[in-house]
Design brief:
Largest interface: A-B, 36 and 51 residues
Strand content of chain A: under 5%
Low-confidence stretches of chain A: 1-12
CATH architecture of the largest domain in chain A: Orthogonal Bundle
Number of helices of chain A: 12
Distance between the termini of chain A: 55 Å
Radius of gyration of chain B: 25 Å
Shape of chain B: globular
Mean pLDDT of chain B: 89
Strand content of chain B: 15-25%
Strand order of the largest sheet of chain A: 1-2
Number of strands of chain A: 2
Low-confidence stretches of chain B: 1-6, 21-38
Structural class of chain B: alpha/beta
CATH class of the largest domain in chain B: Alpha Beta
CATH class of the largest domain in chain A: Mainly Alpha
Oligomer: heterodimer
Chain lengths: ~325, ~425
Amino acid sequence: MQAAPPASLTLTHTGKKRKKRARWVPYLFILPHLIFFTGFLAYPFFNGLYISLFRYDYLQSSTNVFVGLQNYINLFTQGTVEFQEFWNSLWNTIQFVVYSVPLLVAIPLLLALLLNSKIPGRNIFRTIYFAPWVLSVAIVGLLWFWIFQSEGGLINYYLTAWHLQPIQWLSTQPGAWVSIVVATVWWTMGFNMIIFLAALQNIPTELYEAAQTDGSNRWQAFWLVTLPLLRPILLLIVTISIIASFNLFGQPFIMTHGGPPLASGGGTTEPVMLEIYNEGFVRHFVGGAAAMSFVVAVIMMAVSYANFKLFQRRA
Amino acid sequence: MQARLKYPISVVMLMSLLAALLTACGGGSNGSTGNSTGANCGTVSLSYWNAFTGPDGPYMGKLVASFNAANPNIHVTMTIQADYDTKLDTAAASDTLPDIAIINEDKIATEAFRHILRPIDGIMPALGYTSSDFPTPAWNIGEVAGHRYTVPLSIVPMTMFYNVDLLKKYGIDNPPTTAQEFAIAAAAATKDGNHGFQITTGFPVQQIFQQLLHQFGGTEYNSDATQATWNSPAGLQALQWMKDAQAKYSAPKLEVDADVNSFKSGQVGMIWNGIWQATNVTGDGVDFNGMAGPVPQIGPDPATWAGLASFALPAHKSGVNQCKDQAASSFIKYVIDNSLQWANAGNVPAYNKVRNGDGIKAMPLQSSLAKSVENPVFPPAVPGIADAFAPLGDAISAVMSGSATDMQKALNDAANRADQILAQNRQKYGSTPSNS
């Protein structure tokens, strides 16, 4: 407290002043984003963590009780209602990720390769393939519901017209997953395709010319030139597709209502986001829903990390 | 140029922000001055919410308009809300609930405990209704923890829709009313690629199960709703009947609405669904003679699954406004007394005087169902009861879709999970709505 003032007071004083200015100016630049980040991400995050330790309902403040880790313990105790429904819905979501992500990478890549070649009317095709992306999930869900529905739906209409056995797409497995994956791929492939297309256009043509001179065919050029140069974009596409597929909600909500149901509770296409929504906003067990969200968030972080590591090792 | 442009924009933004703040404050002060309890209330404005998003909405709109015309001192503004429960929830959190709301039977207790609704004992003398004016279950479900929260308006029962032309073709001239008649009619029409009866694996199979459970003498829960009892012999009998009917007459593994869609195609004799499908599958909705009537009674006891729309008064942080309550009670009384007009929308009036009156005789569907709503199957009036039904819905659907084959086990498992949910709900809600 009573330390002697430093010898070169004036010097440090001016130096401090300069440093001080330099210190707060950068913060001023990030302030606009910081405000929104704190208000809409950081605060909800920590508040959610706090709420997950309570039996919580925002309309019943008098009956909110601190329960410690009980909401988390319920999720990891076999035999509780939460255990069955949560892990079932998480397993459903993981299945959906496994079914949809390979298709959401392969099909857009193929389309991008086709539409990157000089074919007549390619701009029209690019627009057509991208078009579904602008639709909302409600429209996509309803559209495919009417295509897949078993009594008079478009697909079953043609199946019966060709004397084939109609399929109960939306109320049996694997029909329900097929319907949801087809709807999702049709809806979102355009976005991935556009990113691939932009990346393909960035690959210098000299590389292909060089490959041709060295005697490689088109297949070899794809494996040895295109794919390695697409790796960063591929990582991006895989990561955002996994995250987007993890957030599955609207398509089963509209097309199958989470069904076909399981006798042990929940449905076979009920995604974890729908389960969290039900727990928090239908049952009003907001604390339990917050706990579920955090378990899912940790899993998603682990998956994204593994994803980055995997692509790094190959590089 | 840019700087000059930016300036007005930010001024406009600021102004609009200020304007929003000012109107918010203005609204607040208006609310508090309106709190006078004197007889002279001036013109009272009431907001009224419901979820009548279907063809029923305009019918309610007409009633509101005629009430407004007859009462120059009261102005009711109706808002039809989709995703109704969420809207009530968020409005409660921001204290912007309407003055009057329609509430469904399975939400009354939950929303009373969650402070969305308030007791209406105060306006009951002005309304003048008593328990003898309504079917007993419809009246009783509006009482939560010793206080009245709702007054019944209209009942939407499970209804049988039948294709008169198709049934006639196979020699069935009258719609079946008993289990034997139903079996004969359904079997007769299950020929040549037609189905005598279609039953899905989703909605409304849980409701059909509840109806049959009560007809065979069972109940969903014990008397204080602490335990699920649908795994009783009556429950097994009900589910077995449904499974048999599906195997004998229906296409297998139908999804939600497939019963309605296939009925509309003209190749189905009978379906059981909510009365709200009436405009969709009868009259001009189909190009054959589609009719509607009561569901045949399969078991020994009369029982019909039904939904119930009731009037309720939502809670406000500013407390009770006598002027608004007076106006609200005269509006509620007007609509219930005139619920014959509302019945045109496709429902059965809950008010005995209207349901058993002369006017209803001009409505063949409503008068044919007037009897079946005397024994409606309603859930117990405990908070969170809708959650406890979820395992039952899963179990019934799983059995109907064939993914579960041991019916007793499916019902037992569902009852076990429902017991857990009921225990959690008791812990969460307590026994009386506490003041927050």
